[in-house]
Design brief:
With 346 residues, the protein is an alpha/beta fold. The strands form 5 sheets. The protein has a 6-stranded parallel beta sheet, with helices on both faces. Helix 3 crosses helix 4. The longest helix has 28 residues. The N and C termini lie far apart (65 Å).
Length: 346
């Protein structure tokens, strides 16, 4: 008797009129890893696609809608190929494969996505959403890229990963990571310690990204030699940054003059990335964001590419995506109320 699959939405999908397909794999050991401990990976697929998946040795039997089986087959092929490359599967990889399937959004071919895997010292990194794939593509093709959107979409992490990739390949001589020293309404003058101790907490996420993909001693040596520099945005003034991968994080907290100063630092043989979320600026209410200004001014300039992430691209806990959507819905409602009130006054 066909069972019902309960999806993450809580909706039960009746598979009584489903089609059945089979997939045969060559390596039983890899199939075991593909299924996961107590078939956890298959369960995750069942919860997000209209399918039931039964493992029978090196054969997986798919039962579900024709569309669901098609996407499940694509996801399983993608994950099996990852195992063949010697890369273990995590729940995040399963989620990424589902997001990159045709069910989630149009995506590059499997062959093209395989080329987007960046191998670093501690891990290999590949896009987990179609927007992340477009973002990595933009980083390879454009000298100046803006990655904008909500927190948790991987825009800063992927920028750091790509910068490290360029450094390891010798395509740039150094990495320069910067942030405005302005967070949550605080000013560094009120914090204890010398200048380094004052600014390090603001720059900690950039350190974390580096240590996640590169060996600690390698990062520390490169920081000591100046090949990797992490500094507040104010320290960029008056410099020309040549043969470097340059990243400005939290760009929404830069003023218009600071953003102009930063963008004009770009030197020969360099790549520049600006990331941020225009909806989360910590600037004083009367001061416009340099990121918002730059997006409006430069979006059609040759050599500049803008990649916009959406709440659906959040790759942290799924609750983060729902939180982001709730705030966006509230803000949209408020904007509509303001427009309506203005119209009434007229």
């Amino acid at each position: 008797m066909p069972r019902k699959v309960k999806r993450l939405t809580g909706e039960e999908q009746d598979l009584s009129n489903a089609v059945m397909e089979t997939i045969d794999f060559e390596d039983n050991r890899l199939v075991k890893e593909l299924c996961g401990v107590t078939d956890a990976n298959l369960l995750l697929l069942e919860q997000q696609l209209d399918v039931r998946i039964d493992a029978r040795g090196n054969r997986l039997v798919l039962t579900g809608s024709q569309e669901g089986c098609k996407y499940a087959r694509e996801v399983l092929a993608r994950l099996y190929a990852q195992l063949q490359q010697g890369r273990a599967i995590t729940p995040g990889d399963v989620d990424a494969a589902i997001r990159l399937s045709a069910l989630a959004a149009p995506s590059p071919s499997l062959k093209q996505e395989d080329k987007m895997v960046l191998s670093l010292q501690k891990r290999s990194v590949s896009p987990r959403t179609a927007t992340q794939a477009a973002y990595l593509q933009a980083l390879t093709e454009s000298e100046l890229v803006f990655g904008v959107g909500p927190a948790g979409t991987g825009k800063t992490y992927l920028a750091v990963v790509y910068a490290a990739h360029l450094l390891l390949r010798g395509e740039v001589e150094r990495i320069i990571l910067s942030r405005p020293a302005l967070e949550a309404g605080e000013r560094i003058g009120f914090l204890p310690g010398d200048m380094k101790e004052k600014v390090d907490p603001f720059l900690r996420p950039l350190y974390d990204a580096l240590y996640d993909i590169l060996h600690t001693d390698f990062v520390d040596r490169r920081i000591a030699s100046g090949d990797i520099e992490i500094a507040p945005l104010a320290f960029m003034r008056g410099r020309t940054l040549s043969r470097a991968a340059v990243i400005l994080d939290e760009g929404q907290n830069a003023s218009i003059s600071q953003m102009k100063m930063f963008l004009t630092r770009l030197g020969e043989g360099s790549r520049m990335v600006v990331t941020g979320d225009p909806s989360q600026t910590d600037l004083p209410a009367a001061e416009p964001s340099g990121l918002t200004d730059a997006l409006g001014l430069l979006s059609k300039v040759k050599g500049v590419e803008v990649v916009r992430f959406q709440p659906e691209d959040v790759v942290r806990h799924e609750l983060v995506a729902r939180v982001v959507k709730a705030y966006e819905a509230r803000d949209k409602s408020r904007r509509q109320q303001v427009i309506a009130a203005a119209s009434d006054k007229k």
